[in-house]
Amino acid sequence: MLNKYRQTHPEWSSSRYDFFLFVCRAHNTVNKRLDKPIFPTLQSCIDRLQENTKVTSAAVYRNAYLNYLISNWQREMSSEGFINVDIARKMKKINEEYFTPRDTNFVSLTLPEGNVLELIPENPRNYNAGAGLPNIAKVINQQQLRPTIGFRLSGGRLKIV
Fold first, then answer.
1. N or C: which end of the chain has fewer CB within 10 A?
2. pTM
3. Which of 18-22, 105-109, 146-150 has the lowest mean pLDDT?
4. Are 129 and 10 a contacting pair, CB within 8 Å?
5. What number is the average pLDDT over the span 109-130?
6. Which residue has the higher pLDDT, 119 or 32?
7. What is the mean pLDDT of residues 108-118?
């Protein structure tokens, strides 16, 4: 999703406004896939952000999300899981050392209106974009056909499979 957006909007990271517009569009794209409500305006995205960070700061949300990623990837017990845990730990360190001290509240955030209804084209690999969630039976059958590659815990040791 990010690569396709970068191709159509090369300015996506050139300013806070363009980045926030990308975040809103990506959020709406995922919500559409999950049949959840879509935010119709940039101001509605800002309002939801302000509402969600009234009690808990954005730093707490970022930290909780990184902890969630680490715990899930640790249970995966695959080479990709181990690599992702390392990346998430580095992201957590960056969050603690850089972003948290510079954290700001979103009370005074105002941005000019933009088109947040422009959805990002996706590559439908394991799901039908019109049907919401992936077809679990199809995904399970595909995984059973693929050879298992990664690590397995056996006798207290990791073995490559």
1. C
2. 0.48
3. 146-150
4. no
5. 63
6. 32
7. 70
Closest by CA to 151, choosing from 88, 87, 80, is 80
> Nearest-CA neighbor of 116 among 24, 43, 16?
24
* Residue showing tokens 């879509």: 38
pLDDT at res. 150 = 60
Instruction: Give the mean model confidence (pLDDT) for residues 50-72.
Output: 81
Alpha-carbon 143 to chain mean position: 23
Per-domain boundaries in the chain: 2-126, 127-161
Percent of the chain with pLDDT over 70: 66
* Residue 77 zone, left/alpha/beta (φ > 0; ψ -120 to 50; rest): left
- Measured between alpha carbons, how far is 96 from 107 in angstroms, rounded to an integer? 22
